[in-house]
Amino acid sequence: MAQTDQGIQAHGRAFITGSIEAVTGIHIRGSRLAGAVGGLDSAVTRDPATGRPYIPGSSLKGKLRSLLERHYNKSMQWSTGGVRLHVCYKFDDRGRKMPDREAYARCEVCPIFGTPAEFGVMPTRLIVRDVPLNEASAQRLSRSRTGLPFTEVKWETALDRVTATATPRPLERVPAGAVFAPMEMVYTVYEEADLHRLSHVLDSMHLLQDDYLGGQGSRGSGKVVFHDLRLAVRARDRYTEEDVFDEGLALDVLIEREKEVILWLREKLLS
Predict the structure, then answer these.
(1) Rounded to whole angstroms, what are the CA distances from 260 to 18, 99, 113, 203, 211?
(2) Residue 66: count of CB within 10 angstroms of its CB
(3) Residue 37 pLDDT greater than 50, yes or no
(4) What confidence tier does 216 reach under pLDDT thresholds 50, 70, 90?
(5) DSSP 8-class letter at 205
(6) What tens digit of pLDDT does each residue of 202-214 get?
(7) Which pairs from 147-154 meet CB under 8 Å and 24+ separation?
(8) What pLDDT shows up at residue 171?
């Protein structure tokens, strides 16, 4: 990792942009304090300025991290806000928890997605932006007959296993076919190992396509697909210039070209 008198120095940044299509209805729950549209108890997250649904960057990044943690069978020993995460810790002779620098260097998760502040000055590589509903989908959904602005209501039934009493409940979702764009992930390269770590980001995106985003995934919601991916970089010594690897790519194609991507990043950022 490049070190200067001022601290850690980045070689540059890679930008993965594209779009996210909801193959099935998607439900990312909004704040209970925001006030649900139409009195729904389980309303989606909306942009307060436009009323349009969007995908919070925190939800997308958190799901990518969670899938990668499970994929690599990481221990989940850190708890924050009621959520358990993997962090590379070890215990000293007195049983005190402390950062495990060697494990961190080998970890597929922590360098990319970040660590708690007490871990020390270890930079997070991946930034994930909020993803708005694109204009075409917003226009189409504003004219739909769902009865709600940009969304639909999916009715589900909870069945009491003892009395067989059915309790219907409404779930607000963004309908299937909606496209969220522009999606942007910013990946900072600090050292040679970061070139190879980028493959873990692509793997987590692939895992997400086979899983779900948001809630109620086991009951059909949240299947998504990444489309029209574009990979570009800005090097530290010429940051106003952007070099493009390729664009209009499917995720599978970008993953298949992984070795080519790493060589290209090395040439643009480390040469």
Answers:
(1) 20, 34, 24, 16, 27
(2) 22
(3) no
(4) confident
(5) H
(6) 999 999 999 999 9
(7) 147/38, 148/37, 148/38, 148/172, 149/37, 149/51, 149/52, 150/51, 150/52, 150/53, 150/174, 151/37, 151/44, 151/53, 151/175, 152/25, 153/38, 153/40, 154/25, 154/221
(8) 82
